[in-house]
Amino acid sequence: MKRYTITALVSNKSGVLTRISGLFARRGFNIESLCACTTENEALSRMTIVLNGDEYILAQLTKQLDKLIDVKKIALANEDESIYRELLLVKVSAPAQKRSQLIEIKDVYKAKIVDLSPETLILEITGEPNKLDGFIKVIEPYGILEMARTGLTALSRGEKCLNDLTDYNELI
Amino acid sequence: MNLNGAEILIRCLKEQNVDTVFGYPGGCVLDIYDAIYRDGSLRHILTAHEQGAAHAADGYARATGKTGVCIATSGPGATNLVTGIATAYMDSVPLVAITGNVTVSNLGRDSFQEVDIAGITMPITKHNYIVKDVHKLAATIREAFYIANAGRKGPVLIDIPKNIQTEICDFTPAPASAYKPKAVNASSLNAVCAALEKAKRPLILAGGGCIGSDASENLFALAKRLQAPVCSTLMGLGSYPASDGQFLGMIGMHGSDAAAKAFRRADTVIACGMRFSDRVAGNRIRFGEGKTVIQFDIDAAEIDKNVQTDLSVMADIDEILKALLPVLAQGERKEWLKEVAAYKEYEANHFDSRLPAYKIISALRKFTDADTRVATDVGQHQMWTAQYYPFEKPRTFITSGGLGTMGFGMGAAIGSCIGSGRKTVLVTGDGSFHMNLNELCTAVSHHLPLIILLMDNNCLGMVRQWQTLFYHKRYSQTTLDRKTDYVRLAEAFGATGLTIAGEKDIQPVLKKAFAAEGTVLVDCKIGIDDKVLPMIAPGKSFEDIITNLD
């Protein structure tokens, strides 16, 4: 089993997410995260999909996705040539006596405090997933009350854009 | 010009050269039916059930190569199409299904006869739409027809809420934009050419894709160029003439012994528009052992999906062959052709021709010609037809392969008959026929020259065969024991009913059936334990073929 990151440009229409997640469920693809967002082009959304699988599953997922009319472009993110980011919000128990320790950790990780209450605080951090994992591990002993991770999103470095790729439907 | 949505639909159907549609009216398609009535030039075939309409549109498409169109109302009308749409999807048949739905303002409120048909059909269509703006209707319909025919063909569904059918907008006519497959660059075929020229014992496997891309002529040329034998999958039957000496019959679970032997000996297999389904490659891991596997397919997702290939080309089959033939050297493979001819002869001499089904289907060929469409349902009768009936031309064998839909036959035969405009044959079984026999009324109402040969063994023969072989003869729920009198049933529907009770009846009764006007149902009594052989048990390989149970 390996982890693959796939990025796709899809139609920004209702039902597209269902079409894609339905395909994953139907074909038994094991998805770790799926992150959908708007793009510079309002007709398109961008999806970043993290897949756990092997080369065969990766090939099938890519080709099956590519057959969907609403999927316009699709590419496998290359680890060395891409920027990966994820955002984490975490609400931690922070009574006055522990707060300074948390602030110290926050500074090490370049996280931000975005909310403060007498007993809690919310931290925000962005980075590659393993940085977030490390941060969570350090914060955990203080008592995580709840947290939200956006899932991975990625862009390739340099001038290369997903939109420039050839679509499967243009090939046949 | 200003038209309402329903009128736009009719205009767009005609733009796509649709002259025949199959359907069933209802509350949410009243406006569409009103537009059909007022237009008066579209041939509408009213079926007994929406499932029949979907199968008929499918059969029409398979028999003609055109896009089949079916119409149903919202809710149950739409859900009744589902089996038909799934059948077309599995066999890559171009179909446009049009459903009505409740008004846009009532969508999502569990309104009367409301169902999310777009959601339901998502996994069984190439694409589907809910049209929520009448201004987008024409473009949507045009796109739907394009998608149904582009690349690997398949069904598309358009759900049109009732208010969209009545709302008015400007309509500009546009010609149908036909899909044109991309030409293949000959240089990309160098490796394929080299492998084919090097092959000592090449074998061509022709699939449904050869029919979908109208590649028969070039497929024939490829076989002659390579001097290679040809086997066909169930879906590929008719793409290569059965009467040609190089044709070895069907390959797979119920394929011929000659095909199985040739496959075992082949050093190179060329898969043309076939997807190595489990019914062909029972053991997909061992399938390509010791062989060079070359795959031609229009769908990239089919390449390496079930069987790992050594070489592959992703494009329309006919385009691949068109590019390949000019650069492929003429082969000399006399020894190999002699070898497979011996397999064929051996099988012909050792073939069990005692079965009544064999005798009936063999006799049938004397009353038909190479263009006669022969439809089937699903089960033993289907396999017997595939094995015994010599299909010479593409689009003459109309059968549900991928989904294996019992009940497909009546609708499909009606659609094929209307599409071909010729006398059509349906070979069915008593199990399948009981599923959708209601469509007899459709055939009779339209005076269709349809000959229905019902293989009557009083049981679900194929399931019984498996119970015999794999379940120690525990015949759970497969003995039908119906009291149906098929002759009187046919007469009650306004058709002719005949019976073949024994061998001596075959000739005279078939003669009578083919001489009769309109729809004829022939009850063919066959044995309860007649089996489909050869057989390769599920998961097994070609060397495990069972040719004899004695």
Summarize the structure.
The complex is a heterodimer of chains A (172) and B (550). Chain A has 172 residues and is of the alpha+beta class.
List keywords for this structure.
heterodimer, A: 172 residues, alpha+beta, Alpha-Beta Plaits, four-stranded antiparallel beta sheet, elongated, B: 550 residues, alpha/beta, Rossmann fold, 3 domains, six-stranded parallel beta sheet, 22 helices, 37% helix, globular
Kindly describe this structure.
Chain A contains 5 helices and 9 strands, in the order βαββαββαββαββα. Chain A has 172 residues and is of the alpha+beta class. In chain A, strands 5, 6, 7, 8 and 9 form a 5-stranded antiparallel beta sheet that branches. In chain A, strands 2-3-1-4 form a 4-stranded antiparallel beta sheet. In chain A, a hairpin with a 5-residue loop joins strand 2 and strand 3. Chain A is elongated. Chain B has 550 residues and is of the alpha/beta class. Chain B is built from 22 helices and 20 strands. In chain B, the strands form 4 sheets. Chain B has a 6-stranded parallel beta sheet with strand order 3-2-4-5-7-6, with helices on both faces. In chain B, strand 6 (127-130), helix 7 (137-149) and strand 7 (155-161) form a beta-alpha-beta unit. Chain B is globular, with a radius of gyration of 24 Å. Chain A binds chain B through residues 15, 18-19, 22-23, 26, 56, 59-60, 63-64, 66-70, 168-169, 171-172, and chain B through 118-119, 122-123, 126-127, 130, 147, 150-151, 181-182, 298-301, 304-305, 314-316.
